[in-house]
Amino acid sequence: MTDILEDTRNSGPEKPVSSGVGPGGAADEGITRLLQSLRPDLVRFAHWLARDRAIAEDIVQESMLRAWRSRESLKDATSARAWLLTIVRREHARLYERKRLELVSLDDEIDHHVLATGDDTDLHTLRAAILKLPMEYREPLIMQVLGGFSTEEIARELSLSATAVLTRLFRARNKLRTIYGLVPSSEPVATGETP
Amino acid sequence: MNCQHATLLVGADPYTSSPGLTEHLQSCPRCAEFQREMLGLEANIRRALEVAPPAIPATSPTANVASFKNARRAAAGTAKPVHPTLWRGWALAASLVVAVIGAVWLLRPTDTLARDVVAHVQGEPNSWVSTQVIDTRAVEELLHKAGVTGSSLTSQEVTYAQYCFFRGHFVPHVVLHTTQGPVTVMLLPDEHVSGRESFHESGYMGVIVPAPHGSLAVLSRTAASMDSLARQTWFTVAQRPQP
Questions:
Q1: Closest residue of chain A to B62, computed from CA coordinates
Q2: Which residues of B touch A (CB under 8 A)?
């Protein structure tokens, strides 16, 4: 999968869209169906990263175009989800770095969540707390829980050591513990964490 | 495996499993209890994250690709010619959008956190008038009550100190006596900002700066050097009482 990811990093001149079986071929239809079926997952993932629905939609749209352009390098359909989520994460990072996005009004966003879900207060509080987690903690947590990435995969993607990822995941959950009246656990000493 | 390592592994991924961890959990009730707690929390985290954002009609990937191709064709000069009247209409619409965006930008509200800080300070007008320096122990007690374990504020001349309910949490609100007049400092362990934010609102000037634990707001009604004061102010936080 490394070559695929390398391909998505390329931000140079775009290559013409082409397919091994020609435009409109069975392979293209297959990748179209695949992208369509995974779209809700991608939007949800992007939304928890970006904390804004409209930005998430933009990120996913751009990611799907990138995926489409490099579709020939997707050899194994079973790895498509992880591949796409990685593209989405990088697109989010790229957008964030490029535009220094305005801060989202979290109160509005959180209220929007409540209106959208109508669920219980505890869950609402937890969502609010997740949205308020600093990016360095929220990102690995979202990658792990929603993306299904392993510690090693997250470490590779975020250019961190595995220990640093473990520490960040620990801290993320530790912050969320307090919502349920649980005493935050004292932090274990871990080597390799980067600030 | 020791307790520290087990806590780190379970805290990072409550579903994690390895022979070493399993063996440790079987022999350590404390870590086993920690894992039970974390598994309960994890179920809720997964429930929280599984909720889909509000629905917006999805465009199909092929539509996206078609748009992309059209954009490329247009860039290459092979797009179909657009009728001039239609083009002028679009240009007018675009101008209006730009004008509206510009107006919204000019009239945009200042940062919400800054606004809340100012609103809070305005609600306690007597905080500015006191000149009596408060005993250091009283300040320490107040900070302790708010979960602040240490702060540079205890070594300064504090003329007002309150334990205030602000954005769902109790936070220390103090006024310092400085050579440039009274300056309000609010320690905000639960408010995180990405960088320094200055504000000028309702006659108050101030800055909100990130701190190792949240942020702190410094504001004044005069042109006091708040950046300098913000740089000198620090605080550390332990577990804070819930409202």
A1: A32
A2: 4-5, 7-9, 11-14, 34, 37-38, 40-42, 44-54, 56, 58-62, 64-65, 68-69, 72, 111-112, 192, 194, 239, 242
Question: Are B112 and A105 inside 8 Å of each other by CB?
Answer: yes
CA distance B84 to chain A (A): 30
Contacts of A178 in chain B (CB under 8 A): 239, 242
Distance from C-alpha of B226 to C-alpha of B228, rounded to nearest angstrom: 5
Instruction: Give the integer Cα–Cα distance in Å for B107 and B111.
Output: 12
Amino acid code (one letter) for B101: I
CB atoms within 10 A of CB B230: 21
Point out the residue among B13, B38, B53 whose CB comes nearest to the CB of A116.
Answer: B53
pTM: 0.49
pLDDT, tens digit, for every residue of A120-154? 667 788 888 888 889 899 999 999 998 888 899 99
Residue A184 in 3-state DSSP? coil
Cα–Cα distance between B156 and B141 in angstroms, integer? 15
Would you state the torsion angle of the CA atoms of residues A92, B38, B49, A74, taken in this order, to the nearest 10 degrees?
50
Report pLDDT digits (tens) over B15-61. 888 889 989 999 999 999 888 888 888 888 888 887 755 444 444 44
Q: How far apart are CA A15 and CA A6, in angstroms?
A: 14
Task: From residue B198, give the alpha-carbon distance in Å to each of A183, B115, B183.
Answer: 35, 11, 15
* Angstroms from B40 CA to nearest CA on chain A: 10
ipTM over 0.85: no
pLDDT digits (tens, 9 = 90+) for A88-114: 999 998 887 765 554 454 555 554 544
Q: Under an 8 A CB cutoff, do B45 and A39 touch?
A: no
Residue B53 is nearest to which of A56, A166, A189, comparing CB atoms?
A56
DSSP three-state, residue B182: strand
Instruction: Give the nearest chain A residue to B212 (CA atoms).
Output: A195
Q: What is the DSSP string of B213-226?
A: SSEEEEEESS---H
